[in-house]
Amino acid sequence: MSGARTPLAEPDRVPGPAPDVTVVVVAYDAADRVGACLDALRGQELGGLTMRVVVVDNASHDGTADVVARGYPEVHLVRSPVNTGFAGGNNLGLRTAGGPWVVLLNDDAIPEPGFVARLVGAISDAAHDVAAVNATVLLAARFRPARPGDSEGLLVHGPHGDYVADPAGEVRLVNTTGNVVRTDGYGVDRGWLEEHGRHAPDREVFGFCGAAVVLRRSALDVVGLFDDDFFMYYEDTDLSWRLRLAGFRVEHCPDAVVHHEHGASSRESSELFRFHDARNRLLVLVKDATPGLAARCLARFVLTTASIAVRRSQPAAHVRTRLRVLASCVRLAPRLLARRRAIGRSAAVSRADVERLLVRPSAEGPGTYRRVPSD
């Protein structure tokens, strides 16, 4: 059962004794931020664990690979000649990794000193069917409660109130404690924009977020790696869903904390984001969901696209993006359906049983996070 049949190829692994844990960081045009991530990894309190750091440079244009090579000679650097996206970049790193545990970490995430040891401790103490343990990912910015008259900067409307970014603020907001999938087919970050001190989630979560997670290598040997066709977004939801179908579970470690500069490498208002986010949501459903859920979500996307095109209720560029999404889904459909059949043949859990873990959309809807420029 695999994503895009990307094998865990032994010849690609780093020579020498395998460490207890390999940390994979995929970097793209990250010359101004990857150093902070790698400095924090240098400062990890490992408690006797052995750790190797692998950085995959995804054909950056800003000298990211040279920054890593000059400043961090202990890091194993993989230079990709092309940008393979988050999915393909992590696959390149995963194929180099030896040892039982692999940590994935975003290049714009700063781990606290005990992050790696706590994640590895959590998964090594967990039951063998736990394939992944997600960290607590907080937004890097600090916040204070909003006051009347606040109208610029980073403004947040969250489940617990409204906030403004403030370096002296005492409020930390959650980015994610794992991924959940809603009954309407959308994947969302659990805890998004909740106050950290008030977020008390269950230990188990539907899936992991690839920004900061430890994976059990033996589980990847069963289900395969990320699906290269996804490029970016929803690749972690797809892999989580496949793990669920194979009988594995995902948990969360509250004490393993990273601080994440959300959206540093791709802005959520961009066409790049809108295309991959919408398309990959549909691809996950085609591969992994029951026929009923997949068909309902695909039909809704088609009807909504037709409606906004006729009513001109959204900019023409958004309609063109949605049409590109549909065209790409049609192009990829034959191989996605072949992967779906392969997943179904080896599944240990039925698709219907996995879908019982999906959650209903919140009546309040997701929180909002926006930058408002000063005049």
UniProtKB/TrEMBL annotation:
GO molecular function terms listed in the Swiss-Prot or TrEMBL record: glycosyltransferase activity
Glycosyltransferase recorded as keyword: yes
Top-level lineage group: Bacteria
The UniProt record lists the keyword Glycosyltransferase: yes
Pathway given in the UniProt record: Cell wall biogenesis; cell wall polysaccharide biosynthesis
Pfam families (alphabetical): Glyco_trans_2_3 (PF13632), Glycos_transf_2 (PF00535)
Domain Glycosyltransferase 2-like: 22-135, 204-262
Record's keyword terms, sorted: Glycosyltransferase, Transferase
Similarity comment text for this entry: Belongs to the glycosyltransferase 2 family.
PANTHER family named among the record's database cross-references: GALACTOFURANOSYLTRANSFERASE GLFT2, RHAMNOSYLTRANSFERASE WBBL
Protein name listed in UniProt: Glycosyl transferase
Organism: Cellulomonas cellasea
Origin organism lineage: Bacteria, Bacillati, Actinomycetota, Actinomycetes, Micrococcales
